[in-house]
Amino acid sequence: MAGTIFEKSSTPLTLWFHAVLFFSNAKSGISSKQMQRELNVTYKCAYRILKQIREALKQDNDKLSGDVEMDEGFIGGRGNGGTYNKNYSEVMKDKAKVIAAVERGGKMKAQHVPDVSSMSIWQFLEDHIAQNAHLLTDSSNRYDLAVQAHGMKRTAVNHSKKQFVKGDAHVNSVEWFWSHVKKSLKGTFKSVSKEQLQSYLDVFVWHYNNRRNDRQRFEALLGILLPVKG
Hints:
Blueprint: H1 13-25, H2 32-39, H3 43-55, E1 67-75, H4 88-93, E2 96-103, E3 108-113, H5 118-128, E4 134-138, H6 142-150, E5 153-157, H7 172-189, H8 194-209, H9 214-225
Parallel strand pairs: 1-4, 4-5
Antiparallel strand pairs: 1-2, 2-3
Helix pairs in contact: 1-9, 2-3, 5-6
C-alpha cells in the first residue's frame, strides 16, 4: 500500500486494522499499554502504531463559521487544590494553555498556544475562524481587541456574575470539551508532555468532528489512512 502508513511496515495489516478499530471506538483515547494488550504486541509496536495514527489526524485548514463558541483552557501542571491562593499565578504558569472553538452543529478546533494573550487569540481567529462568524465567549477582556481587529460579531456571557446563558449565547459545548479532555488525559494517559499535547488534542478534535456511530468513525479513519487516489 504505497504512500500510506502501512507501506514498509512489518506489522501485519490485520493488526493495523484491529488497531484502527480500537482507536476509532476509544472516545476517551487509548494508551500504548492498552493497545499493547488489545493487539498482544510489544509496547514499542503499540507506541509506533498510535504515534503514526495520531500524526495522520492533524486538523485541517477549514475555518469555523456561524455561531462559534470559543474559550481558553489550562491543562496539566501542578494542582492547587482547587483554591485561588497566593501561588495561583505560579500554578497557572506551569499549565499548558489551549484555545478551543466549537461551531454550533459543526466541527471544532483546538490549539496549544504559548499563552492566552490578546495576540494569541487574534492569531487563533486569523487561522481558524471565518470573519463572518458570530463568536460566543465569556466576558474576558482578552477578546476585545482581537475581535475588534477582525471586525467580528461577539456575544459574551459573564461567568463572574453567575451568567452562564444569555439568550442563545453560552459556551457549554467548549466547556464540555475541556472536561472531556482533562478527564481523558488524567484517566487514560496519566501524563502527556507539552510537546506531545497538540497531537493528542488533534485526536480529541477528530473524535468530536466524527461523532457518529462506531462504523462510520472506523471508515472515516481508514479513509484518512488509505486515501483514494483518483
